[in-house]
Design goal:
Leucine-rich Repeat Variant, 65% helix
């Protein structure tokens, strides 16, 4: 195996399926120097927020997490006095912090700001709810998705509604609510609405096992527009339905990097073993797009195999970029986890077969 090219791990612009957002792999840049404040009250944090001349210290962000009713009221009382730019700055910082710290939750703020007058605030509020599985969120999200006057929150709502479809497939959401979401997604896909919104709806519908989904995905996959093909591939990966294996593999070496990226992601989600040699070939291409490279590496960690392991270990030894090193370490850890899980499943299956044989012999 020859010397590998140097590459940089960086996040894709696509929120719902980007490697960073999905797996928390590339660490965000630091927001501001941490202040030495041993006893910092929430009131003083809010006073700091009102001062647009000051940056928002990273040490303040945890104080916005898990607000009690009194603190939430204090926050909402001063929110109208915060400048629009400052509002977005805070919410962007909270979103970055949410990606990097699994112990914080900004759901209280997110719920309240779904009704904000600023569409960009509403969009970020939905982002703060990304980890929630509360079915009470479905009605307001559907309302935003179907009727909001601003595109950004509608896109975010589509992405989060897809997660609720997945909850329905896992029997963790009321069937009626799941069907309401699916009906809304299909209605937008088949409408003449904004094409980007329709593609987000298509990707969200990928989680659904509903009968119409197959024809909808096939139709999108056959389009000549590469962004529609990429969205169809992303939906195929989310379906966890191996009927799509051949379609995904056929696009791994497509001429458009957006399609290769989506195909590589889908190959990992579907655990297509036949895709592994092709992706190893892609990784040898020094001209390959960095996003495609990242997607292929992560997919190899999902598929597994000795060749994938050796390649990732070799690449790690030759990589100097800190973000890339962290990404590769996470990929190797993920490969270990998936192989252990696979071995456990095989062991459990063997034990079940032995029990069946014992029962048959009685």
């Amino acid at each position: 195996m020859g010397k590998h090219r140097q590459w940089r791990c960086h996040a894709s612009a696509h929120r719902s399926d980007a490697l960073r957002e999905r797996h928390g792999l590339c660490q965000p840049c630091s927001i501001a120097p941490t202040l030495n404040m041993a006893e910092l009250t929430f009131q003083s944090v809010l006073e700091y927020l009102l001062d647009s001349k000051k940056d928002i210290p990273q040490s303040h962000l945890r104080h916005y997490s898990d607000l009690d009713p009194k603190s939430l009221r204090l926050f909402l009382d001063i929110w109208s006095r915060v400048t629009p730019e400052r509002k977005l700055l805070l919410l962007d910082h909270l979103l970055s912090h949410l990606d990097s710290d699994t112990l914080v939750s900004y759901e209280d703020i997110g719920r309240e700001l779904l009704k904000d007058a600023d569409g960009e605030v509403r969009a970020r509020a939905i982002g703060l709810l990304a980890e929630s599985n509360d079915p009470k969120l479905v009605p307001p999200l559907l309302d935003i998705f179907l009727t909001d006057s601003v595109l950004a929150p509608r896109l975010e709502a589509a992405d989060l509604l897809g997660e609720f479809v997945l909850l329905g497939e896992l029997e963790e959401l009321n069937t009626s609510l799941q069907h309401q979401i699916e009906d809304a997604l299909i209605s937008i896909i088949r409408s003449d609405e904004n094409p980007t919104l329709r593609r987000h709806a298509l990707e969200a519908l990928g989680y659904s096992s509903r009968e119409e989904t197959v024809n909808i995905l096939e139709s999108a996959f056959q389009r000549e527009d590469p962004v529609w093909v990429a969205s169809a591939l992303r939906a195929m990966g989310r379906s966890h339905d191996n009927r799509w294996d051949d379609s995904v593999v056929s696009k791994l070496l497509d001429g458009d990097p957006r399609i290769r990226f989506a195909a590589a992601e889908a190959a990992g989600e579907l655990v297509i073993e036949e895709a592994a040699p092709i992706m190893l070939q892609m990784l040898e291409d020094e001209e390959e797009d960095d996003n495609v490279t990242s997607a292929a590496i992560w997919s190899l960690s999902q598929i597994g195999g000795e060749d994938a392991r050796l390649y990732l270990l070799n690449l790690l030894e030759q990589t100097e970029d800190e973000d890339a090193i962290k990404f590769l370490e996470d990929a190797i850890e993920n490969l270990d986890f998936n192989e252990e899980l696979s071995n456990f499943d095989l062991l459990s299956l063997g034990e079940e077969d032995e029990l069946d044989e014992e029962d048959d012999g009685k």
